[in-house]
Design brief:
By secondary structure, the chain is α+β, with helices and mostly antiparallel strands. It contains 7 helices and 12 strands.
Length: 206
């Protein structure tokens, strides 16, 4: 199947609008700016893709955080992008940054939890910029075929968590409350597909 770049970028534009809308609707922390700074301010040592340029030009996050009902996650701002790679792309030593040979060099961490250790990464050398995730010591695994799919799925997740479950009502003493997974399946599975959906849910709620 041929990759349709224009259709992908149109989907990304729609996903960015959805993300900004849900962020504003629920008054979430931080702000998005359309500064057009991506190319000029992009760290030299970090790879880039058309989708990342579009994201940071049109929807640059500043201290944007999302609660999931389990773990708060924060989008990496442009000015924090280089520091967000420490511990993944490279180690921080007294002599500077040392590349981690086990970390794919095309991976860019764009989201993580507050304490680190749950990176969401954009894969910059593949069409559409697929999105992978990881936690603990596991190798990153795919959760979306494109940046557009991931951001739209994130917007849908946020809408459900904040709009239908008041964030922390997602869980009770028995675990995830009845109906929550069904709502995720209803809204997110059509966006990312079955295999990615299962890994998406495992990352956020496994």
């Amino acid at each position: 199947m041929n990759f349709d770049f224009e259709a992908n970028m149109a989907e990304l534009s729609d996903a960015l609008k959805a993300l900004k809308n849900v962020h504003g609707k629920f008054g979430l922390p931080g702000t998005f700016i359309s500064g057009g700074r991506a190319v000029s301010y992009w760290p030299v040592a970090i790879p880039i893709s058309a989708e990342l340029i579009e994201f940071y030009n049109e929807c640059e996050p500043e201290n944007v955080k999302f609660e999931t009902g389990l773990t708060p996650l924060k989008l990496v701002g442009l000015d924090q992008l280089k520091g967000a790679q420490v511990g993944y792309r490279w180690s921080n030593t007294r002599s500077g940054h040392v590349l981690n040979p086990g970390w794919p060099q095309e991976y860019v961490v764009v989201m993580d939890d507050s304490g680190g250790g749950k990176p969401i990464v954009a894969v910059t050398d593949e069409a559409g910029t697929p999105v992978y995730a990881s936690y603990d010591t596991l190798s990153p695994f795919k959760i979306a075929e494109s940046m557009a799919d991931f951001l739209l799925a994130l917007a849908k997740l946020t809408e459900i968590v904040y709009g239908e479950y008041n964030v922390f009502d997602v869980f009770d003493d028995d675990g995830v409350v009845d109906g929550f997974m069904e709502r995720l399946e209803e809204d997110i599975l059509p966006i990312v597909g079955l295999d990615n959906f299962n890994r998406f849910v495992d990352y956020f709620y496994g």
